[in-house]
Amino acid sequence: MLRKLPDKISKFLIYLTAFGVSALMAIMLIHIIKESIPAFSELGIKMFLPSTEWRPVSANPQFGLLPAITGTLYVSFIAVVLALIFGVACACFLNFYLPEKIAAVFLAFIDLVAGIPSVIFGFIGLTVLVKSFATHLHMAAGQCILAAGIVLAIMLLPFVISTCHESIRVARTQYEMTALALGFSREVTLVKIIFPAIRPGIVAGAMMAFGRALGETMAVMMVIGNSPIFPKLLGRGQTLPSLTALEMGSIEYGSLHLSALYVANVVLLVILLAVLGIGYLLKRRFAKHEF
User: Fold this and answer.
1) Where is the protein localized (predicted)?
2) Which residues make beta-bridge pairs with 237?
3) Predicted TM-score of the model (pTM)
4) Which residues pair with 62 in a beta bridge?
5) Distances from the Cα of 156 to the Cαs of 58, 76, 200, 269, in angstroms?
């Protein structure tokens, strides 16, 4: 009986922690939905019409969220595409073309990058990338959607590289020796066998990166320009997290303006759940066709 006591205590603590986290998430979700009800009741679908602008303090206030929603999706899409291209390539290089000890050193540095505060990325993007855009592309300020996407892609690289690296390592142990025994070259093995086998891992990395991109605030806010207009690649824009961060601390509690910001966060949660759901379905579909 006493031998099983530590196991029972560990099991109880695990269940207690899981319940506590779930309860906390439920309380936060209920609070966000509750605070957004006034805006939904008074404004309704108007918040999502292309003709409605974000002018919360004008004589005739408007609370259009569509520009920020499109800006969020635009920046996240650019960042995830760039992170996947360079992240998968980097993971392949670390697995196939570097000695294991040297690759481990690089992976350690890549993991360190994931722990750098986002404000550091934003500051570097503002002083280097935005300045370069303003100089070489003859832009007025250099802050734009593309700059935000590039900075965010650099922040997402550690997540994509780590996920893809582990997937490639597992696939190599299963298929590489067989492929080489059949006379396939390293490149053919990588393209024809390893890549199809790691599709679930790539999807998982992409979804993790997209979820991270949707919620990023500070770095994006520093380089995107923060203009509540429909985004263009080399134009200013705004995302839902940056909109919330910029205005949440300077508005009256209980106002319609505050409720509209809660609606923005509800929309962000819905987008995140939709992305994760699509990623889960894609991962299951690819896993069924895995070698």
Assistant:
1) Cell membrane
2) 225
3) 0.85
4) 55
5) 37, 10, 18, 19
Most distant CA pair in the chain, distance: 76
**Distances from the Cα of 264 to the Cα of 29, 50, 64, 252, angstroms:** 13, 15, 10, 17
Rounded to whole angstroms, the Cα distance separating 101 from 173 reads 17
pLDDT for 23-65, tens place per residue?
998 998 898 888 888 888 888 888 888 888 888 888 888 888 8
Q: Where are the alpha helices (DSSP H) in the chain?
A: 5-42, 66-96, 100-114, 118-124, 130-136, 145-181, 186-188, 195-197, 199-215, 218-223, 240-247, 256-288
Two tokens at 271?
């987008």
Give the sign of the dihedral formed by CA 192, CA 198, CA 203, CA 205.
negative
Our CA angle for 115, 120, 122, nearest 5°, is 120
Burial of 235 (0-12, 13-18, 19+ CB in 10 A): middle
Choose among 130, 134, 137, 135: nearest CA to 219: 130
